[in-house]
Amino acid sequence: MPEPITNNETNTITIAAANTGKDNWEWKCLLSTFDKVNWQIRNRRLTLLIFGEEFGFDRNASIDARFVGMSSREKTEEILSAADIMYCSQSFEPKFAERTRSHWPPELALFLKSGRPTVYHGPSYAAPVQFLKQHHAAVLCHSCEPVSVELYNCFDRLLFDADFYRETAEHGRQAAQQELITSISDEHLKHCVKAND
Predict the structure, then answer these.
(1) How much is the pTM?
(2) Domain residue ranges of the chain, discontinuous segments joined by +
(3) What is the pLDDT of residues 131-167, one digit of tens each?
């Protein structure tokens, strides 16, 4: 069973995420929530490991973020194994509701397979929600308030409830082996990672 990987010198928690656009509601919620707590959870510093195109943070808060771009599936899995928590989000915006109801995030399968627990942040009607609930494969947050206590609590519980951390990670790993998520996510992953380095 996996344990949280923390940097003993800096006491940091690394959260892996895919770049879905800094102006999306869910990203604004994540960033403003972490801003509110000064990018710390119980004195542990939070850092983001972001896959995809780099963007600038037009913010006053001190943000620790590293962009890793796009890589092969194998390299991506290697990078993910060094993170503590996966963050997977889908749009809350009404204009994207139809897509959200039918679309699985391209990174979801890799996140679940990583051996680390996943925080899924999206509306309750999103395509993967029932699957994730059925398999207890992720911690679900359906709140997109400007500062979300619910979202903060998802990370807080994972980091400070070791049994819950291990169970969520293992359930996610097992769920990732299901034919449904494998077939759906493999198709979407064509647009998420490179075929080769």
Answers:
(1) 0.85
(2) 12-189
(3) 999 999 999 999 999 899 999 999 999 988 999 999 9
Reference 108, options 121, 124, 94; nearest CA is: 121
For the chain, helix, strand, coil in percent to 5 are 40, 20, 40
CA angle 51, 56, 57 (to 5 degrees): 100
What is the percent of the chain where pLDDT is above 70? 78
Q: Which residue do the tokens 């679309």 mark?
A: 103
pLDDT at residue 194 greater than cutoff 60? no
12-189 — its CATH code? 3.40.50.2000
Tokens found for residue 164:
């819950």
Q: Which two tokens stand for residue 143?
A: 């709140």
Q: What is the DSSP letter of 6?
A: -
The CA-atom distances, in angstroms, between 27 and each of 104, 117, 144, 179, 194 are 17, 19, 9, 30, 24
Q: Which of 25, 172, 34, 49 is nearest to 111 (CA)?
A: 172
